[in-house]
Structure formats: C-alpha cells, structure tokens
C-alpha cells in the first residue's frame, strides 16, 4: 500500500542519458521515495516506448506525464477511480490532454505550408537519417518517433524571425510548440499544468483528502526554453516546487536549508529589506545544487519536513 501523503512530480529527462543510463545518482532518490512510500510521477518528453526499459530497470510503477505534457499515463489498475475521458494505450490507461495523432502531424504540415517555413518531422526521416539526426542506434531511434500525441521536428534553414513567427502563429491556432533542445515538439493541446491537475485530482479522490504535490525540476545552465515553461507549470500546479541548479544557489551552503524560524523572523520585520530577505530565504530553502554529494538526502529531508 502506498502512503500518499505526498506525491512527487520530478522532471525525468535530466536524469537519463539518451541511451537510458541513470545520471546524477537519481536511482538513490527513487529508492528513498520508495522507502517513504511516496509516489514518484515522472514528468518527461519521452514516449511510453522509450520508458519501458527504464521503468522496468528502476522499478517504477507509478504514473508518468508523457510526451511533454500531452497525457497522463496510468499503469493498469493503479486507480479504481478514473477520469471520465480515458483511452487505452498499450499497457496504460491514458488521460489525454492533447489530441491524439495524427492531429499534430497534420497541424505541423499545414502550419509550415501556410507560413512557407521548412520543417522536417522525425516521422518523415529514413531509418538511416533518423539515426544520424538523433545520435541513437536503430531501435532506440525508432522509439523516439513512436508517439501517441506530439510531433517532433526541426527547422531546416529557417531564420530566427521565421521561428518566432512560426511559434506565434501556432499559439494563435491553439497549438503547443515547445523547444526541447535538439528538436521541437508540436502538439494540439499539451499542458503540463493540466496533466498535474488531472492526476492530482485522482490522488485526492482516492485518498479523500489533498495529497501534497511536490514538484522537482532540474534548472541547468543554458537550458532551453522548454525548461522554463515546465518550471512555471510545476510552480503553478504544485504546492511546492524544488529547483536543482547546476551552480551553487546563492545564500546557502551545500546540503543546508534555511530554518522555519529564520523565515518567521524575516516575516516579522517591518523594513523593506526584510521583505527581500523573506523571498531570498524561501528561494534558498527551495533550491539545491545538482552536483552536491548530499543532494538526494537533503531533498528528502526537505520533503519530509512538510509532512
């Protein structure tokens, strides 16, 4: 039985290499959450095909938010209660937030033609071209384009103004375009915040009380714009969001958090500077250094403080 006093929403992609190797000792954190019996919801741009092997290897049996916020994937019989709008996808019951394919593929083709901007979808590449563009081997490369909702693509020779115009027009048409770094994603309605609300509502209904939603996002230096969008979605939808920075967060030592008493002292001051200190204190307590040897222990301690 899972003690769902907390539900942890963690951005998975920074902790898996393109070939599926675990980075930053992420498996230690998963083991700690398992020991506490807290569900860990993976938030990812990967497909269910790409996640099959990592889920088996890491023993992950909780839901995940797949394809950059396109849908909530529930393992079979995870909840007795389900949302009214569900669909079966392989071994998962999915709550779709975006429209299923081929909606995204058709929308991408139409948008590119209307704007006369050349884009190349991964779906259109030959197996050899796919391997060359992704840097993945044959089976791994094929899994990246086995998508239920969104369409991955890249711009071919488009200037920056063309890209800006493309994204703006997509927004006008109700499409979601996300910069995933090496590629772009286009979907008909992906929304991380809506995914979290849908899944969080199921946890609350099953428990008959509110399960705290803790978001964890790795905010690496030089991150693409999709990271900022994801961080905003987690902040808006979770009760608390913890940020993992590549650099040392300002105003704190490694593995150390500001105490509640310090925050209360700041809040009790009438000076304008105290207000700055309150925000700084909250920010410091919610930020951790990604490369700290005590990262996962410190993170678990912070989560447990709010039990």
Describe the structure concisely for a colleague.
The protein is of the alpha/beta class and 307 residues long.
What would the keywords be for this entry?
single chain, 307 residues, alpha/beta, Rossmann fold, Threonyl-tRNA Synthetase, Chain A, domain 2, nine-stranded mixed sheet, four-stranded antiparallel sheet, 19% strand, globular
Topology:
Blueprint: E1 6-11, H1 26-36, E2 40-43, H2 48-58, E3 64-66, E4 71-75, E5 87-89, E6 92-96, H3 103-115, E7 119-121, H4 127-134, H5 138-144, E8 151-155, H6 160-172, E9 176-179, E10 184-187, H7 192-207, E11 212-219, H8 225-237, E12 240-245, H9 260-267, H10 272-285, E13 287-289, H11 295-305
Parallel strand pairs: 1-2, 1-11, 2-3, 11-12, 12-13
Antiparallel strand pairs: 3-4, 4-6, 5-6, 7-8, 8-10, 9-10
Helix pairs in contact: 1-11, 7-8, 9-10
Secondary structure class reads alpha/beta
Number of strands: 13
Number of helices: 11
CATH architecture of the largest domain: 3-Layer(aba) Sandwich
Folded structure, characterized:
- A nine-stranded mixed sheet has the order 5-6-4-3-2-1-11-12-13, sandwiched between helices.
- With 307 residues, it is an alpha/beta fold.
- The protein is globular, with a radius of gyration of 20 Å.
- The protein starts with 5 loop residues before the first strand and ends with a helix.
- The chain has helices at residues 26-36, 48-58, 103-115, 127-134, 138-144, 160-172, 192-207, 225-237, 260-267, 272-285, 295-305; strands at 6-11, 40-43, 64-66, 71-75, 87-89, 92-96, 119-121, 151-155, 176-179, 184-187, 212-219, 240-245, 287-289.
- Residues 252-278 have low confidence and may be disordered.
- α1 (26-36) runs parallel beside α11, α7 (192-207) runs parallel beside α8 (225-237) and α9 packs antiparallel against α10 (272-285).
- It folds into two domains: 6-97 and 191-246 and 290-305, 3-Layer(aba) Sandwich (Rossmann fold); 103-187, Putative mannosyl-3-phosphoglycerate phosphatase, domain 2 (Threonyl-tRNA Synthetase, Chain A, domain 2, 2-Layer Sandwich).
């Amino acid at each position: 039985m899972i003690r769902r006093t907390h539900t942890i929403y963690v951005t998975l992609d920074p902790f898996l290499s393109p070939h599926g190797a675990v980075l930053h000792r992420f498996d230690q954190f998963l083991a700690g959450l398992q020991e506490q019996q807290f569900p860990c919801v993976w938030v990812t741009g990967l497909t269910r095909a790409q996640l099959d092997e990592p889920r088996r290897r890491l023993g992950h049996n909780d839901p995940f938010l797949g394809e950059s916020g396109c849908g909530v994937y529930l393992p079979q019989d995870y909840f007795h209660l389900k949302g009214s709008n569900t669909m079966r996808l392989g071994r998962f019951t999915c709550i779709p937030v975006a429209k299923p394919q081929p909606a995204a593929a058709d929308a991408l083709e139409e948008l590119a033609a209307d704007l006369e901007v050349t884009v190349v979808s991964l779906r259109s590449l030959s197996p050899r071209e796919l391997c060359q563009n992704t840097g993945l081997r044959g089976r791994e490369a094929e899994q990246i384009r086995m998508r239920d909702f969104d369409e991955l693509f890249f711009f071919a020779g488009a200037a920056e103004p063309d890209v800006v115009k493309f994204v703006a027009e997509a927004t006008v048409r109700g499409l979601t375009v996300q910069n995933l770094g090496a590629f772009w994603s286009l979907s008909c309605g992906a929304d991380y915040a809506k995914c979290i609300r849908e899944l969080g509502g199921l946890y609350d209904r099953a428990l008959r009380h509110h399960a705290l939603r803790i978001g964890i996002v790795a905010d690496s230096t030089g991150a693409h714009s999709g990271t900022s969008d994801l961080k905003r979605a987690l902040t808006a939808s979770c009760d608390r969001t913890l940020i993992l920075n590549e650099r040392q967060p300002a105003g704190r030592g490694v593995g150390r958090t500001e105490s509640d008493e310090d925050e209360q002292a700041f809040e009790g001051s009438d000076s304008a500077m105290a207000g700055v200190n309150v925000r700084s204190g909250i920010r410091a307590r919610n930020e951790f250094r990604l490369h700290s040897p005590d990262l996962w222990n410190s993170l678990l301690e912070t989560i447990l403080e709010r039990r």
